[in-house]
Each structure stands twice: as C-alpha cells, then as structure tokens.
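FORM 12-B: Structure-to-Sequence Request
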C-alpha cells in the first residue's frame, strides 16, 4: 500500500480546497526552466513539450530547442531524462548530437530515454551509434537500442542484427527483438524465421508467445502455441500478446478453436480474469461465425457511440467483407472518421471478396 507522510497528507488536503492551478504560459515555462528547484524544472519541461506541439510554440521552436539542449546537460539526472523524452516527442531533430552524447550519461534512465528519442527522431546519423549499442554490456541499453534500431534500419540491415538479439542473454531483449521483427514484417526473412523457430522453445513464456505470433503463419509449432494461449494452458504476462494471439487464430483460419473462442466470448470462461471476450469475438467473426458477425452488425446500430465504434474496429480487424457497405453508410459524425478509414482499409474493395 502506498505510504503517505503526515506532511504529504496535509498538503493533499490543502489542495482539495484550493482552486486548480492554471496551466503555465509559454513565458512562465521558459522562466521556470531556470528554477533552482528540480521538481519545478521537471514540470516546466513537460509544459514546454505541450507548448511546442501547439501553435503558440511553433514560433519559438528554436528557443525551445535551445532550452532542451541546456536541460540535457542539467545537473539533475531527472531533468536530463525528461529533456530527452520531450526532445523525442516534439521531433527536435537539431538535438541529435546532444542525444548521442547523452547515450554515455552515467544514469541508466537518461541513457534509455536518449536512445528512445533517437529512434523517434529517425535521423540516420544515429544509426551507427545505435548499432553499437545493440551489443552494449548493459541489457537496458540493448533493449532500447533494439527499439530505436527498428525505427532507423532497413529490412536488409535489420535481419542479422535482430536475429542475433532474439538469441540475447537477457529475456527482455529477446522479447523486444521478436516484437520489433514482427512490427517490421520480417517474418519471411530466413535468419529471422530460424531465430523465431528456436525461440519457440525459450524458457520464458512471453518469448515463446512472441515467437509464435511472429512465425505462426508459416510454422505449425507456432500455431500450436497460439492454440495453447487461446485454451488458457499457456499464459503470458503481456496482455497485448494474449489479445493478439486470440485474434491471430481467427486470421489463420484455426476453426478447430471455435469452441474455446465461444467460451471466451459468451461462456463461463469470459467471467475469468483477462479472457478478452471482444478479441475472441473478432476471431470468431474472422472465421465466419454467424453469431459473432450478427452481434457486431447489430452493434453498428447501437445508440451508444462507443459500441458503434468498437463494432467498426472489430469488423475491420476481422476483415468481414460484408460489413463494408454498412460501415460506409454510417452517418458522418456518428463515429470517429479515423476509425472508419482504418476499418475500410482492412476490407477488400468491392468485387475483390473472392479473389
């Protein structure tokens, strides 16, 4: 249970009855970046990021970049860490040289956030340093380097390096290398496929499941592991991977798991913790399951916007071709247009359903 000191409790009580603090203006933000108090500089950096992402910050971007550069050399490790995060979020490309220096910072979180920012910025100047970091003796640096490498490298450059990291000594590095290879759609590359096959026997369940998600389309052993996830006999601490495994069996046409998916969607199984009934319904719809598809079609007519939007997303992910006209026909403003566009992008165009 979180412990709160008497002083902290009293302070919280005072804030309960005080008027809410007004957001910092841009000028107040720049002023507070020079505060002697670490916590003030940290919060001012967060506000600087917010301002630089809005119109009022676009006119003073050079000033903001300069302030971030100063913060990257601050005496406080926390300030340097937050400065690296903001530099990445606001795409401050001019800070690449400073961020490369920050990769040698004595504090772990500063190094990690600098590596993450370099990946976000996507500047080729960072690639040689990121490649060297893939074999750094510190696993936390290798972990962030894998993520950055996935954003900076080409498919040809990525094959050997990611295959090597899938066999890394650190479980977290192995896991993230598999995830990055999946996001880069490298599953068809021989070295990645071979590394993924070996990872199916990894001692850690999260690595096994990630490997199965990567290569299941071409490997019966991978599909067998996905079936174990759906049945609940193989658990991973990564919730998103369990959800992805459930949806994957639908896309792979594994109709033999329909009963397990039904239990997740509607049966007693759905009352257990983390059984993901919505994802099970997507998988069933992908398999052509009548009840799942009928319910999702009915949800398109719901009076609740969130239900309509969930149905649009589900039908798109399930690639239910018959839903195209219904999704197109939904009135403007009745759903988020981004969700409509994304769903339609998953669906075959008219006349292509049977191609």
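FORM 12-B RESPONSE
SEQUENCE OUT:
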């Amino acid at each position: 249970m979180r412990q709160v000191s008497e002083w902290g409790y009293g302070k919280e009580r005072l804030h309960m009855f005080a008027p809410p603090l007004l957001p910092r203006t841009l000028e107040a933000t720049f002023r507070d970046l020079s505060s002697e108090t670490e916590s003030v500089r940290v919060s001012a950096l967060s506000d600087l990021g917010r301002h630089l992402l809005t119109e009022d910050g676009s006119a003073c971007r050079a000033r903001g970049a300069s302030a971030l550069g100063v913060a990257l050399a601050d005496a406080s490790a926390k300030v340097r860490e937050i400065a690296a995060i903001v530099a990445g979020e606001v795409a401050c490309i001019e800070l690449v040289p400073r961020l490369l220096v920050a990769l040698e910072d004595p504090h772990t979180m500063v190094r990690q956030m600098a590596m993450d920012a370099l990946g976000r910025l996507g500047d080729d100047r960072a690639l040689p340093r990121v490649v060297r970091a893939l074999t750094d003796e510190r696993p936390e640096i290798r972990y962030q380097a894998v993520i950055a490498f996935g954003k900076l490298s080409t498919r040809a450059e990525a094959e050997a390096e990611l295959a090597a990291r899938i066999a890394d000594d650190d479980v977290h590095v192995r896991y993230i290398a598999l995830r990055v290879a999946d996001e880069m759609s490298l599953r068809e590359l021989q070295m990645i496929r071979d590394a993924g096959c070996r990872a199916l026997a990894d001692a850690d369940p999260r690595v096994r499941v990630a490997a199965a998600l990567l290569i299941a389309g071409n490997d019966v052993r991978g599909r067998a592991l996905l079936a174990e996830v759906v049945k609940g006999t193989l658990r991973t601490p990564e919730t998103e991977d369990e959800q992805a495994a459930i949806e994957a069996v639908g896309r792979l046409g594994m109709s033999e798991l329909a009963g397990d998916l039904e239990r997740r969607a509607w049966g007693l199984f759905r009352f257990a913790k983390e059984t993901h009934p919505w994802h099970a319904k997507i998988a069933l719809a992908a398999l052509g399951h009548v009840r799942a598809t009928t319910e999702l079609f009915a949800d398109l007519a719901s009076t609740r916007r969130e239900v309509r939007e969930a149905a649009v997303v589900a039908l798109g992910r399930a690639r239910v071709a018959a839903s195209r006209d219904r999704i197109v026909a939904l009135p403007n403003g009745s759903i988020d247009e981004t969700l409509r566009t994304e769903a339609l992008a998953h669906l075959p165009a008219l006349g292509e359903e049977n191609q």
